[in-house]
DNA sequence: ATTCCTATTGACAACGTTGTCATTTGGGTA
DNA sequence: TACCCAAATGACAACGTTGTCAATAGGAAT
């Protein structure tokens, strides 16, 4: 490993001068700078982060604590978004994947302290982080795609209420009146919010919200749920006055509706319109006709989390805003206008 | 941050004694050990990795350079597998996501050097790493899910040949004779190997391999490809003596075949058997009937890569084995026996 | 009691960097 | 020429840890 000392010796200047050049300190004569820079490149000098860190106290590493990556495909985009934003600041991500194991999480918090990470993004699905706050970790923490009920930390989450509104509004505007709804597990926060959004859309349009057409697409506990949307959709579609459209809680449910329609010989969108949520493109782009859905903006959530982190370091401890990231409609071919 | 010095002062012993206890050095009197350990816990001491690293020269961080995470869903499982194996050694993963940008990759190599990562896992899809070897990085490198043509590094890759064999053998054994094949881009290594495996299966069974039933499911260049499997499947299935089964290069293609079958009013598996590859469970578990497919063992690849890394550090530079990880058949409901 | 040996403990330097402060250099001004 | 000031450079300490080696203590052997 090439050190400042070696470069300095080779260039015939002091260690400190080389250090200054590496750190773009203007107080160096241009000629000296050029001369030394040649040596730096030639010897392929790379500053030792460990030494820097020891001297300065804060690293350029951001910790990302997550169980989301394990549980949801494409939640990787949170990572990508964060990294994209981080790249500018020459910071890097240390990813800790807990798979939901609290013991493992505790170990990773210790690890973050040991590495002196500058800040932490805590990304999780569904459940609220309980063990948060406990770890005596004093650097900024921002929650991504989740939030802690106790508060105390900024969080960046998708605007599920608006997302639900978008789904319902889109179909209502296109003349659908009998709309089936296949939801996520109703205990999930996202599910509640989207339901609220949909009802708001019905209300505005002046259409009666028909509870009978609302069913849950999963059974079982949240950690061990089983898809039953196929059966649910089949029973919905077999009925005499079947819905003309079905709104789904995610694209997986939508896929099951596609299969149910196929099973019953109904074509999409001629006989049935289908709307998804998430925009998992392995599904939405691969089915035929392509799925109209509402996107879960993971990339933007990750990016925004980093942005919040930058702000967080300059705010007071009490600062804990909730940033809602919009869920854009992705219009494809699975919904037809009835007019 | 609590330091050894502070703990030592509090416990009334020397810094070195505390250090010994933290590092499980047996040369400490049990009473001293117990006494100090109480203080360690009470003060919540965590050793400073930066200082350790500076002293010792090697970190406990493993770098993971990848574009795979960006391009393929569930390739995250490589990360999870690696982490699971790493956990034992109390090492952690520093993930560098290149999105395929060579400039960014070069920057990350520098970063790895700066962080003095102990070793690197290089995970990529499709293309061979060209810039590899260039970065003067002297720690062990293992390639995951890819390999460098120049050799020089151990690699862990799925056994695509055997995977292709498995696909064909499964259908042949169940009496299928007219088997359609919708492949990945034929320039991809995986595609070539699987083709070879399938032909081997046909050969062994003594069935003629009908080239006319083999079509590519994508158009366009590898970096910007477009799914056309739906159209391909429709044309295949419209023909008078249509295939009784279709083997797909991945589950996305299989999903398109499902949609094509639905479009033509054919039911799966009664009128058509479908076999996928990858086992993306957002598809394979969500379609109805559930998809019989061959799994891409990402988790195991990640795990194995770490295992190879451990071995690599004790091997000579020339050591560069290729480890083939089997692709297990996942039998579900999309294939029927003709007998 | 003295000596010796081993078990235990401690003092100190070093890792590579940067902050602080002192020193040198060079050029302009009186 | 002498002087002064700012710009440029350097010497040194410190960050927290561990390796090396020295010092101490305590017990056994004489």
Give the structure's gist in a few sentences:
2 copies of one chain form a homodimer. With 339 residues, chain A is of the alpha/beta class.
Fold and architecture overview:
Two copies of one chain form a homodimer. The first copy, chain A, has 13 helices and 14 strands. The first copy, chain A, has 339 residues and is an alpha/beta fold. Chain A is elongated and about 90 Å long. The model of chain A has no long low-confidence stretch (mean pLDDT 91). Chains A and B meet through helix 4, helix 6, strand 2, helix 7 and helix 11 of A and helix 4, helix 6, strand 2, helix 7 and helix 11 of B. Chain A binds a DNA duplex (30 and 30 nucleotides) through helix 2 and helix 4.
* Alpha-carbon distance between the two ends of chain A: 72 Å
Largest sheet, strands/sense/barrel of chain A: 6 strands, parallel
Based on secondary structure, the structural category of chain A is alpha/beta
Oligomer: homodimer
What percentage of the residues of chain A does DSSP assign to strands (E)? 15-25%
Supply database-style keywords.
homodimer, alpha/beta, 6-stranded mixed sheet, 42% helix, elongated, DNA-binding
Topology:
The structure is a homodimer of 339-residue chains.
Chain A lengths: L3 H8 L3 H8 L7 H13 L6 H8 L4 E6 L1 H4 L4 H13 L3 E6 L4 H13 L4 E5 L17 E4 L9 E5 L1 H14 L5 E5 L5 H17 L8 E3 L1 E2 L6 E2 L1 H10 L6 E4 L2 H14 L8 E6 L2 H4 L7 E4 L2 H15 L9 E4 L3 E2 L9
Parallel strand pairs in A: 1-2, 1-3, 3-4, 4-5, 5-13, 6-7, 6-10, 10-11, 11-12
Antiparallel strand pairs in A: 8-9, 12-14
The first copy, chain A, binds a DNA duplex (30 and 30 nucleotides) through helix 2 and helix 4.
């Amino acid at each position: 490993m090439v050190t400042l000392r070696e470069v300095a010796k080779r260039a015939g200047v002091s260690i400190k001068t080389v250090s200054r050049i590496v750190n773009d300190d203007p107080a160096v004569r241009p000629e000296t700078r050029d001369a030394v820079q040649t040596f730096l490149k030639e010897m392929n000098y790379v500053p030792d982060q460990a030494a820097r860190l020891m001297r300065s106290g804060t690293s350029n590493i951001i910790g990302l604590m997550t169980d989301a990556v394990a549980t949801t495909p494409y939640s990787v985009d949170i990572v990508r978004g964060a990294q994209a934003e981080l790249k500018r600041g020459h910071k890097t991500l240390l990813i800790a994947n807990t798979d939901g194991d609290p013991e493992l999480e505790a170990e990773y918090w210790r690890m973050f302290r040991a590495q002196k990470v500058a800040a932490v993004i805590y990304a999780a699905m569904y459940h609220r982080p309980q063990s948060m706050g406990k770890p005596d970790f004093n650097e900024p923490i921002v929650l991504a795609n989740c939030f802690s009920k106790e508060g105390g930390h900024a969080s960046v989450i998708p605007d599920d209420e608006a997302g639900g509104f978008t789904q319902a509004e889109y179909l209502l505007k296109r003349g659908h009146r009998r709309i089936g709804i296949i939801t996520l597990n109703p205990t999930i926060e996202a599910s509640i919010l989207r339901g609220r959004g949909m009802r708001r859309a019905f209300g505005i349009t002046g259409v009666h919200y028909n509870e009978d057409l609302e069913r849950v697409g999963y059974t079982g506990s949240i950690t061990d749920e089983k898809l039953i949307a196929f059966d649910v959709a089949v029973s919905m579609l077999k009925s005499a006055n079947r819905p003309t459209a079905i709104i789904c809680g995610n694209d997986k449910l939508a896929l099951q509706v596609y299969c149910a329609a196929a099973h019953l010989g109904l074509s999409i969108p001629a006989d049935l319109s289908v709307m998804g949520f998430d925009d998992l493109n392995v599904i939405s782009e691969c089915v035929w006709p392509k799925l109209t859905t509402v996107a879960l903006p993971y990339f933007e959530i990750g990016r925004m989390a980093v942005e919040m982190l930058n702000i967080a370091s300059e705010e007071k401890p009490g600062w804990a805003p909730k940033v809602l990231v919009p869920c854009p409609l992705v219009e494809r071919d699975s919904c037809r206008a009835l007019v």
